[in-house]
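Ops channel
N.P.: pipeline sanity check, posting one input/output pair.
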């Protein structure tokens, strides 16, 4: 626990200044985290990032992560009509490579690489896009994820009796799940009281509940992946916390959700 707390404080101290400043430094940091996360998910499958398929997957990931205005410049530079065409081209190259190596890498592995690139890439892409809307929105995203995670942990540890999903994550409880939602709502309302950023308290409560639930499902998805590949953590870059995916699994689900709610005028 002590190591976990110390790591969290140091990581936050390094991460928060980038969040506050935003712009290119924040984009580069998020891109670097996405690359590490992609490396972690490939490693679970036994695929090297430094192989031909890993490299093509990495190019796909980078194109998915970078801001829309950056990817548009890449697309214009190579003469394509959209970045989707570039991603399609990379997928074709991966499938051609399967033929060239005579199934030494399989269709299933290509599918895993592409799904991994979308899973990691789009989540981190929307983290960058959310920051571009304004600091308050990305702060809210982080607040919901961190308070949900902390609330679920401490409430579950103190009051948890009923297992939530033991086949996937044996330590998670129903009480912790609910506690995480309640704590997230309390902190979101506190943020709204200090710095009003949402249209109203009622809509904020519903959005926070929804985001907290989706975030915890993202955590369970990562747990399911790790259980399938029989690994404890996705990586070991953060002592006491595991890897990048272990810490950002919820965020990868929450930020796309809030992005779509933003454009749907729910704020």
């Amino acid at each position: 626990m002590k190591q976990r707390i110390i790591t969290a404080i140091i990581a936050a101290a390094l991460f928060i200044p980038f969040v506050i400043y935003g712009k290119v430094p924040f984009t580069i940091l998020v891109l670097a985290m996405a690359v590490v996360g992609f490396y972690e998910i490939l490693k679970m499958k036994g695929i090297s990032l430094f192989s031909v398929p890993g490299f093509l997957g990495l190019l796909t990931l980078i194109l998915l992560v970078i801001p829309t205005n950056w990817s548009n410049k890449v697309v214009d530079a190579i003469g394509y009509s959209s970045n989707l065409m570039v991603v399609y081209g990379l997928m074709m190259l991966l499938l051609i490579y399967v033929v060239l190596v005579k199934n030494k890498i399989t269709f299933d592995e290509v599918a895993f690489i592409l799904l991994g690139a979308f899973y990691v890439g789009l989540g981190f892409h929307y983290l960058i896009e959310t920051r571009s809307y304004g600091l308050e929105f990305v702060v809210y995203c982080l607040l919901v994820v961190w308070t949900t995670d902390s609330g679920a942990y401490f409430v579950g540890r103190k009051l948890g009796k009923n297992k939530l999903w033991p086949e996937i994550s044996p330590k998670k409880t129903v009480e912790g799940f609910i506690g995480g939602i309640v704590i997230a709502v309390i902190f979101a309302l506190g943020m709204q009281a200090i710095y009003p950023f949402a249209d109203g308290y009622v809509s904020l409560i519903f959005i926070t509940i929804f985001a907290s639930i989706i975030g915890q499902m993202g955590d369970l998805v990562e747990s399911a992946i790790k259980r399938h590949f029989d690994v404890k953590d996705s990586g070991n870059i953060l002592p006491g916390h595991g890897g990048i995916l272990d810490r950002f699994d919820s965020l990868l689900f929450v930020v796309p959700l809030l992005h779509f709610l933003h454009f749907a005028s729910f704020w």
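N.P.: looks fine end to end. Residues 32 and 113 are 18 Å apart (CA to CA).
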